[in-house]
Amino acid sequence: MADLEIRNVSKTYGSVVAVDTLSLSVESGEMVALLGPSGCGKTTTLRMVAGFVEPTAGTILMRGRDIIGLPPNRRDMGMVFQSYALFPHMTVRRNVEFGLRWRGLARAEMARRVASTLDLVGLAGLDDRYPRQLSGGQQQRVAVARVLALEPKLLLFDEPLSNLDAKLRLQMRHEIRRLQKDVGITALFVTHDQEEALTIADKVAVLNRGRVEQYGTAAEVYDEPRTRFVAEFIGTANLFAGRLEGGGLRPFVSAGGLRLPVEVAGWTGGGDALLMIRPEKVILDTPGGDDGLRGEVTRITRLGGTTEYAVDLPGGERMLAHEQNGPQARLRSAGETVAIGWRAADARLVAAERH
Amino acid sequence: MSASGAVLWLVNGIIVLYLLAPIVVVVATAFTTTAYPVFPPRGFTLKWFAKFMATEEFRSGMRLSFVLALASTAVAVALGTLTALALARYRVRALAALSAFVLSPILFPGIVLGLALLIYFHQTGLAGSFWSLAAAHAVLTTPFVIRMVMASLGELDPSLEEAARNLGAGWWGTFFLVTLPLIRPGVLAGAIFAFIISFDELVITLFIAGPKLTTLPIRIFTYVEYASDPTISAISTTLIAVWIAVGVPVYTRFLGVRHR
Description:
Low-confidence stretches of chain B: none
CATH superfamily of chain B: MetI-like
Number of helices of chain B: 11
Oligomer: heterodimer
CATH architecture of chain B: Orthogonal Bundle
Distance between the termini of chain B: 32 Å
Structural class of chain A: alpha+beta
Helix content of chain B: over 70%
Structural class of chain B: mainly alpha
Largest sheet of chain B: none
Shape of chain A: elongated
Distance between the termini of chain A: 36 Å
CATH architecture of the largest domain in chain A: 3-Layer(aba) Sandwich
Low-confidence stretches of chain A: none
Helix content of chain A: 10-25%
Largest sheet of chain A: 6 strands, mixed
Shape of chain B: globular
Number of domains of chain B: 1
Number of domains of chain A: 2
CATH topology of chain B: MetI-like fold
CATH topology of the largest domain in chain A: Rossmann fold
Number of helices of chain A: 8
Order of helices and strands of chain A: EEEHEEEHHHEHEHEEHHEEEEEEEEEE
Strand order of the largest sheet of chain A: 6-7-8-3-9-10
Number of strands of chain B: 0
C-alpha cells in the first residue's frame, strides 16, 4: 500500500488555480521529487501535505488515514525549509530538541537521540553553537538533523539546497539521499532543478500548471517523455513537429519536409506527432546511405567534457548534437557540412500539442 | 574639516540645542533658592526635592500613576501583540481598513477620545473606577504596541513559525517559544511607549478620572494653578533622572538586539 496518497487535490486562490486535481502516490521508503518551473504548484502541494495550506478539494491519505483538517503539529512529518528556518535564539542542541519535547520523551532518551542524530549528520561537538555561528552547509545539516531526530512518518524537503553554492549543493544532495536511504523514511523533495531531481529521487513527478505531466523513474521521464513539456523541461531535446507517413526506416516527415528515422512500434498516437531526439544520441559523420541527412555547422560551444554543435538542416530546421571530447574526437569548424543521423531506436515519438 | 562639514555640525548643534533647551531650563530651575523658577538659577538647594518627597499628594499621585501605567501597559501589550499577530499573519479581509481602525486612537484628538470615553463610562456605570481609567489608557496606548510589534513581525521569517508547528508545537507553544522571543524587541519598545504615554497622560484622564483618582499629571496641573514655586521643576527633574536611569538602558538594549 502506498505510504502517502494524494487524491484529486486542488487548490485555488480566487480565480487562480495553483494545483489542479493532482494525484500522486508514494510508496514506503521512496524519495519522490516534485519537479517543475516556478508557479507549477509543487510548493503548494508540499504545503498541503504538511498542513500549512488547506486544499480546496480532494483528499490526502497518510498510511490509509485521511489527514485533511489535521493541524500541522499532529501530522508527524519533518520538513526542511528553503531558509532552513533554524530558531536563531536557540543553540544547535535546543533546535534539535525542539521537536522531541512534544513527544513526551524521558530526558536521557532525548539527550541520546540528539547526540546520535548530530553524529549521523556529522555535527557532533557543535551542540552549543548558535545557528549564526555555523556555515550554510552546517545550518542545512542542523535542519536535517532536527527532523531526523523525530523519526517522522514522512520527510518533506522544500528546495533545501537552493541557498548553497554549487559545490556544496552537489555534496549535500548525495548526503541527503544517503541519510534518507539509511533511515528509510518516505520523502517528498520539491525542486526546480531537473538535475537535482533526477539524481536524488527514486521517482520524479514533473509538474506543470498544477498538474502532473508525468510520473516515473528518472530514466523514464528522461528517455520516454510523454509530453512536449517534459521533453523540453528535462535535459535538452531536439523536437521536430511533423507526421507519420508510411513505414520504412524513415517513417516521420518533419514540417520542414525532412524524412527522419524513428521506431514506430507501440505508438498509439495519431498521425500528427513530435519526434524527439536527445543531442547526445545524435551521430555526426554518419556513414550515411544516399538518403542521409546533411547539415551545416553554424555554432560550436565547448561544454567542458562535451562539445555542442548547432547544425542547420535543409528546410530551415536546426538541431543540437553533443559529442564527447574523447581521444578520438575531431573538433569540427563552423561552416562545415556534416552527415547527421541517429539510431531509430533512440528517437521517441511524443504526442502533438493537445490544443 | 570642510566648509560643508562645519555647516552640518552647526545645524545639528542648533537642532540639538532647540530640543534640549526646555529640559535644561527645567532641570536648572529645580535647584534655585528663589521661591519661583528662574533661569539661570540662583544659588543651589535641594529643598524643592525635599518638598516634593514630603508632600503626600505628590507621593500618592506618583504611586497611582505608576500602578495605572503598569496595569494599562499590561493590557495594551497583551491586546496589541495578539492584534499585531493577527494583522501580520492571517489573510484578513479588508486588512488595510482593519489596521487603520485599530491604529486610529493615535490620530483622534485627546479631547474627542476623552469625551467619548466619559459618555461611555457614565452610561455603563463604570465611571470613576481604577479599571475604567486603565482601560481608557490602554485604548490610547495599544496602537503603539501594535505598531512596534508589527515592525518586528515584518522582519520575522514566517517559516520559523511553520517549522515550530511542523516539529509538533501547538499554537501557544509556537507563540511562547518561537514567536515571542524573536519579536521581544518590538514588544519591549511598545511597552516602554505605552508606559510613558500612560504615565504622562492628562487630557483623557481629566475627563474620566473622577475625584478619587488623582494621577501625578493631574496633581501637577492643579498645583500650578495656585502655586508657582519650583517644586514642579523638581518633580520633572526627578522623572527625567528616572527615565535616564531606567528607560535609556532598556531602549539601547532594544536597539542593540535589533542591530545584532
